[in-house]
Write a structure and sequence with these properties.
InterPro entries: AMP-dep_synth/lig_dom, ANL_N_sf, CapK_Type1_Caps_Biosynth. By secondary structure, this protein is α/β, with parallel strands linked by helices. The protein contains 13 helices and 20 strands. An 11-stranded mixed beta sheet has the order 4-3-6-7-8-9-10-14-13-12-11, sandwiched between helices. A 4-stranded mixed beta sheet has the order 19-18-17-20, covered by helices on one side. The radius of gyration is 22 Å and the shape is globular.
Length: 450
């Protein structure tokens, strides 16, 4: 670890978190101890926190007080981890319907978040300081598994407008101090890819972070141009937000000359799991209880695919209890050779985000179009299908209050990104069927990417 990295990780970043009212350092240190506990001790720790959470939400969260009263449940009835199944599932439609009632009456300081999710359903929810602190600490712990730390040079390839729209002076200064550089994942033209490759070579980062599709596309472009990227000293590429395919993993690891570390989670569900250097996906069990359920809502055993349902134990201010993510995964009852006692995810299925090709050949991340639709609250579901370079169909399930003026917003927004000559067809349907995995595939492109 360089002297500057030590300065950042041991002083500047802790000071930054302290000024925000977060006890991130203490939580991370506790997690670096608890990760070595055996499963029995971890389960006991989860149960203790679960009881505390249920007691809190019954006393202070109107939605859960009503739900538990309807089921004639008291906090003391949740005496085992299995008793969690006595509570109903939380879904995106329920959050949208009961947003105000899900807020704790203790009047916490909450941050508003907006996410489209993999199903394309816009969702507004809130996160409090406790949740933010625990998520940051969990991510920080996982980062350190790979021999890198906050303050090491980092390139982030990302597409969320939350990040890309927050580049004010304070944010710019913070990123410079932390040696984090953000490059947009939306537009992947040859010119931009060449700029990204050059920027990575100039920065010589210790770590990369971003969508696996974007990082693999940058890697393939460098290889195509005959530019070496495996001599920069990159120690790890953290990938998240999409399913990591084998060919992407091979491209990233061979061309950048570093291992990939897969991460799984989201703004709504939290930091669920992260891969360790031994190859296992460790669940952040100190904060998150993971259940997998079948189509009937019944919990499935280890080794059987099921929908991921999470209970985030640091969400008393705006609870996520038995929250259905829509993702499909498989739990593993094995023990990782790294020695950590954290439970494992054997496989994560059904997460994909395709690229869309503009008329001029520019390759852009599918989220570039998704965000246009996500910001229209009367759109309930959508699917973007690119059949040809000049033809794109948007399937829409809308509410009764959907306004015709939104058609122009969608078409103009898509044409601005794809090209004015592209035909954008809006297809209003009653429903959009799910894939075999049980998830909606919200972007489908039949246009080959060179």
């Amino acid at each position: 670890m360089s002297l500057y990295t030590k300065l950042v990780s041991q002083f500047l970043f802790p000071l930054h978190e302290h000024l925000k009212g977060h006890n991130t350092v203490a939580i991370r240190k506790e997690m670096e101890q608890s990760q070595w506990w055996d499963r029995e001790k971890i389960n006991h720790f989860q149960l203790t926190r679960l009881k505390k959470l249920i007691t809190h939400v019954y006393q202070h969260v109107p939605y859960y007080r009503d739900v538990m009263d309807e089921r004639q449940l008291k906090p003391t009835d949740i005496a085992t981890l299995e008793d969690l199944q006595r509570l109903p599932f939380l879904t995106k439609p329920l959050i949208k319907q009961h947003t105000d009632e899900l807020r704790s009456d203790t009047n916490p300081q909450l941050q508003r978040f907006n996410t489209g999710g993999s199903t394309g359903e816009p969702l507004i929810f809130y996160i409090g300081k406790e949740r933010v602190t625990h998520d940051v600490a969990a991510k920080w712990r996982a980062t350190r598994w790979w021999g890198v730390d906050i303050g090491d040079p980092e390139i982030v390839v990302w597409g969320s407008p939350v990040e890309l729209g927050a580049q004010d002076r304070v944010r710019e200064l913070r990123d410079k101090l932390l040696r984090t550089e953000l490059i947009p994942a939306f537009e992947m033209s040859d010119d931009n890819l060449s700029k990204f490759v050059e920027r990575i070579r100039q920065t010589r980062p210790k770590m990369l972070f971003g969508y696996p599709s974007s990082l693999s596309l940058i890697a393939r472009h460098a290889k195509k141009q005959g530019i070496a990227m495996d001599d920069l000293g990159i120690k790890v590429a953290f990938v998240t937000s999409e399913r990591l395919y084998d060919e992407q993993k091979d491209d990233i690891e061979k061309i950048f000359g570093c291992p990939t570390a897969n991460g799984y989670g989201g703004r709504d569900a939290g930091f669920i799991a992260h891969q360790c250097p031994s190859g296992s996906m460790h669940i952040t069990a100190e904060d998150i209880i993971v259940e997998l359920i079948d189509s009937n809502g019944e919990v499935v055993p280890h080794g059987v695919p099921g929908e991921v349902v999470i209970t985030h134990l640091a969400t008393g201010e705006f609870p996520f209890i038995r929250y259905r993510t829509g993702d499909v995964a498989v739990l593993d009852d094995a023990t990782c050779e790294c020695g950590r006692g954290l439970p494992l995810l054997k496989e994560i299925q059904g997460r994909t985000t395709d690229f869309i090709v503009a008329q001029n050949g520019t390759v852009m991340h599918g989220l570039a179009l998704i965000y246009i639709l996500r910001d229209i609250p009367t759109i309930q579901k959508f699917q973007i299908v690119q059949a040809e370079l000049d033809l794109l169909t948007v399937r829409l399930v809308v509410s009764d209050t959907y306004e015709v003026a939104c058609n122009t917003t969608i078409i103009e927004g898509f044409k601005k990104r794809l090209g004015q000559e592209v035909q954008v067809v809006l297809d209003f349907v009653n429903d959009i069927p799910v894939e075999k995995s049980g998830k909606y595939r919200y972007v489908k492109s039949n246009v080959a990417i060179n």
